[in-house]
Write a structure and sequence with these properties.
single chain; mainly alpha; 0% strand
Amino acid sequence: MDYAWVALIALGVGLIGGYAGIAGAPFLIFFLVTFLGYTQYEAQGTVLAMMMGPMTIMPVYYGRDIVRRRGRVILIAILTYMAFSFAGANIAYLFGTQTLKIVFGVVIVLVGAIYLDFSLRRSNGSSAIPSEKPLSTVSMAIVGSIMGFVGGIVGIGAGILLIPYLTMVKGIEQREAQTMSLAILLPPVSLGAVLKYGLIEKNVIWPAVGIIFAAFVIASGFGYKLSMKHRSMVLRIALAILLIATGIVNIVMST
């Protein structure tokens, strides 16, 4: 029965994740811990292991033209994410995740609030549309490293950090930024973290990994196709609300 709930949760989160361009890992972890009795490390390890499979294959297929055009910088972020996720996972076991999740939650709430303000200003025309800036190898390597490190610590894909950076700082169009975020999650970027959570610490529930993966693949494709019907303004506001909700979830789970 637990696995049926796991599938339903993953379907819901996958739909939202495909729509907003994120993996939705904080919500998966929240439900696994709060309602299904997983330990924090088991939930994080299981979600990170799910991310090793090509869970975003359908959104990436639908957005393949964007992925092809941005392939070089996406690859850089993938490689640095892989390298730093193991370091993040080791930090999680060294110091525990409670304080780190509170700090991360507060940061994400602030980012979400800034992004919501940015989105609302853009929607009413009071904020100028930023011109697109080039994505350098160095900048994407730094972003990928931060994503991997943070992802290893708190068990998430960290696309929620990437999309605001790409849209607010680099001026990249919303759907393009979301597609890039999902493309970075296509290869086994969480491999380093899973080595720690799964092989060393034995905190991965492997049957749940397969169920979550299958459900996410199915639902995320529908979510991405739904996003293609909406304007960038709607997508930005939806992501901003998800950012704030993600931060609150992290704070609540740490108290």
